[in-house]
Design brief:
The chain has 403 residues and is α/β, with parallel strands linked by helices. It folds into two domains: 178 residues, Rossmann fold (3-Layer(aba) Sandwich); 198 residues, 3-Layer(aba) Sandwich (Rossmann fold), CATH 3.40.50. Helix content is 37%, strand content 16%. The strands form four sheets. A six-stranded parallel β-sheet has the order 3-4-2-1-5-6, sandwiched between helices. Strands 10-8-7-15-16-17 form a six-stranded parallel β-sheet, with helices on both faces. Strands 12-11-14 form a three-stranded antiparallel β-sheet. α1 packs across α3, α9 crosses α10 and α11 packs parallel to α12. The longest helix is centred in the first third of the chain and has 16 residues. It starts with 12 loop residues before the first strand and ends with a helix. The protein binds adenosine monophosphate (AMP).
Length: 403
């Protein structure tokens, strides 16, 4: 893999696409600096070599979230609000260009000395960024000698700064450490998984996950299905699912998947029972119910005790585990048990030598809620990018460096 380790940055200006799309409170204080923190090793490597860093990122969606008067909310979406944090984490001054293109940015980039850092203003103030505009990418490319992509969160987008720009650096482009680690871990699952390989999928909607399920069927030994999406599979098989979540237009596809799994010898596991509730609320009445007999007016909001036992036994025997999507509405304590017990089983399997990767926002949030983030092999920061990787798609951000 072409990482920053393959390049000596002495005297070079590295133009680095980072993901500084960090959450902020109403006063624009950063509430979680994990994404900035994660890129520090890449920046330090370049600076220690004697190079300089020109950082470019997006923050939110400024052109989609306009102010009430229809203008861009510069105050909210400026990357200037991240300068202090980057500077503190790096232990160095960070210069800021108030526009990502134009003469000021070009002059600041040109004057940059080894060891110095320049942050460009939010790329998404320009529609050309998300459009993958070549002229815009070309303007950005002029600032640096080497292009580094360390923004895995946007690797599935063919934007100007994430993919198109790489064309201007045919012999001087590489991945930063964040990207390299994400790719290595995802590849470990898709290309070198030790068996038994179990994928645990859950979450609300089956329609979001069908492509992943289709692709995973070619890789895994066990496919565990929980969460709201399980009920569409159960209904497809003729079960009464009461008022549980269901996508009626996907019933046929669910049946097809069940058949495909069967034909390939993959054990597709659906929950035997559920915790059903009389409303979607933390104070709902709840009871255990066999999934063959969910009454009208009741909805499955978590997997039940038999399903937990069944799933955990399989998980504990696995050597490779991919987990995407919670088993129930884990945000409400009454319906968290399925997700929590599955998390405990994943931790136990990991202790016994399994490789476990947790990916996608909600499963990562669940693992964090229970305090297990350091007891699994890897928690991906990728979200959408990771999911597209597991759908079997070639990510533009990866292709642009490898190609
Ligand atoms: P996703 O973004 O598709 O991974 O879905 C995650 C969301 O699915 C979480 O917010 C869960 O609360 C929700 N969820 C999980 N199980 C259920 C269920 N049985 N019924 C409704 N929502 C669920």
């Amino acid at each position: 893999m072409k990482t920053v380790d393959t390049i000596n940055f002495a005297g070079k200006k590295a133009l680095i696409r980072v993901d500084f799309n960090v959450p902020m409170d109403k006063q624009f204080n950063i509430t979680d600096d994990a994404r900035i923190r994660a890129t520090i090793p890449t920046l330090k490597k370049i600076l220690n070599d004697g190079g300089s860093c020109i950082l470019m990122s997006h923050l939110g969606r400024p052109l989609k979230k306009l102010k009430e008067d229809g203008t861009i909310d510069y105050e909210k979406f400026t990357l200037k609000n991240t300068v202090k944090c980057i500077s503190e984490l790096l232990g160095a001054d960070v210069k800021f260009a108030g526009d990502c293109i134009g003469t000021d940015a070009a002059q600041m980039a040109s004057a940059l000395q080894p060891g110095q850092i320049l942050l460009l203003e939010n790329l998404r103030f320009y529609k050309q960024e998300e459009k993958g505009d070549e002229a815009f990418a070309s303007q950005l490319s002029k600032y640096g000698d080497v292009y580094v992509n360390d923004a895995f969160g946007t690797a599935h987008r063919a934007h100007a700064s994430t993919a198109v720009i790489a064309n201007f650096f045919p012999n001087a482009k590489c991945f930063g450490y964040v990207m390299a680690k994400e790719i290595a871990n995802a590849e470990k699952l898709m290309k070198n998984a030790e068996h038994p390989f179990t994928a645990i999928t859950g979450g609300a909607k089956v329609s979001d996950k069908l492509l992943i399920l289709e692709n995973l069927i070619n890789k895994v030994d066990n496919l565990i299905i929980g969460g709201g999406m399980a009920y569409t599979f159960l209904k497809a098989q003729g079960y009464e699912i009461g008022s549980s979540l269901c996508e009626d237009d996907r019933l046929d596809l669910c049946l097809e998947l069940i058949k495909k799994a069967d034909a390939k010898g993959v054990k597709l596991m659906l929950p035997f029972d559920s915790i059903v509730a009389d409303k979607f609320a933390a104070d709902a009445n709840a009871k255990v119910c066999d999934n063959k007999q969910i009454e009208q007016g009741w909805m499955g909001l978590d997997i039940g005790p038999k399903a937990i036992e069944d799933y955990c036994e399989t998980i504990k025997q696995s050597k490779t585990i991919l987990w995407n999507g919670p088993m129930g509405v884990f945000e409400m304590d009454k319906f968290e048990a399925g997700t929590k017990q599955v998390a405990i089983a994943v931790v136990e399997a990991t202790k016994n030598g399994a490789f476990s990767l947790i990916g996608g926002g909600d499963s990562a949030a669940a693992v964090a809620k229970f305090g297990f983030e350091n007891e699994v092999s890897y928690v991906s920061t990728g979200g959408g990018a990771l999911l597209e990787y597991f759908e079997g798609k070639e990510l533009p951000g990866i292709k642009a460096i490898n190609g």
